């Protein structure tokens, strides 16, 4: 069972991103504020769940959250400012879109660029520890997957419906065969033989 909050003094938002390790497409981020009494038997890190469960959970999160928002930073900006800064920017944009301002932020991972003057806490593997971060991981992942499905209709040769832009062997082979699409991140070494093969981050 995950924990509801890191602290109880302030309204708390959980943040997470999706797509940082991809070769193509944007990075997405979400911010979620959940009710104090929120509990769920299935909700956890999006990478531990199947696609059907993730989309069912998205409906639940959007129905029960006090506030939620999703934002993206595109591949061109990723190339301009680097993926780490783009991830931070996407999370900041999601926080800005919340209709309730949080007084505290918890973020999945070990690095974050402070948002305004709001105190924050980074939590390693936080999407498996706190409901709000897990909820943010679900929203970021499913909205990004929807986006990559749309791009796959334009460029089916890269198998984005299945790999979502992650560096699978089939994806890398397609880049070698067909070259880069307009949505590939030019600063990522697509054909590097040492590049880790992974569907998820």
TrEMBL record:
Protein's job: Endonuclease that specifically degrades the RNA of RNA-DNA hybrids.
Primary localisation category: cytoplasm
Cofactor: binding comment: Manganese or magnesium. Binds 1 divalent metal ion per monomer in the absence of substrate. May bind a second metal ion after substrate binding.
GO terms for biological process, alphabetical: DNA replication, removal of RNA primer; mismatch repair
Localization per record: Cytoplasm
EC number: 3.1.26.4
Keywords: Cytoplasm, Endonuclease, Hydrolase, Manganese, Metal-binding, Nuclease
Organism: Daejeonella lutea
RNase H type-2 domain location: 10-201
The protein's name: Ribonuclease HII
GO cellular component: cytoplasm; ribonuclease H2 complex
Catalytic activity: Endonucleolytic cleavage to 5'-phosphomonoester
Transmembrane segments: none
GO molecular function annotation: manganese ion binding; RNA binding; RNA-DNA hybrid ribonuclease activity
Gene3D superfamilies named in the record: Ribonuclease H-like superfamily/Ribonuclease H
A Pfam family recorded for this sequence: RNase_HII
Cofactor(s) the record lists: Mg(2+); Mn(2+)
Taxonomy, superkingdom: Bacteria
Coiled-coil region list: none
Residues where a divalent metal cation binds: 16-17, 108
């Amino acid at each position: 069972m995950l924990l509801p909050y890191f602290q109880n003094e302030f309204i708390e938002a959980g943040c997470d991103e999706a797509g940082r390790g991809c070769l193509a497409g944007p990075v997405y981020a979400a911010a979620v504020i959940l009710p104090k009494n929120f509990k769920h038997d299935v909700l956890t890190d999006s990478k531990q769940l199947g696609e059907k469960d993730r989309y069912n959970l998205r409906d639940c999160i959007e129905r029960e959250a006090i506030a939620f928002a999703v934002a993206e930073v595109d591949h061109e900006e990723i190339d301009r400012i680097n993926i780490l800064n783009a991830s931070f920017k996407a999370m900041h944009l999601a926080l800005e879109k919340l209709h309730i301002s949080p007084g505290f932020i918890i973020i999945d991972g070990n690095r974050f660029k402070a948002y305004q003057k709001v105190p924050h806490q980074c939590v390693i593997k936080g999407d498996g520890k706190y409901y709000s971060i897990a909820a943010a991981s679900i929203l970021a992942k499913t909205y990004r997957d929807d986006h990559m499905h749309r791009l796959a209709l334009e460029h089916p040769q890269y198998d984005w419906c299945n790999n979502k832009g992650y560096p699978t062997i089939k994806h890398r082979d397609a880049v070698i065969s067909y070259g880069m699409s307009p949505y590939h991140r030019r600063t990522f070494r697509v054909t590097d033989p040492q590049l880790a093969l992974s569907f998820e981050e």
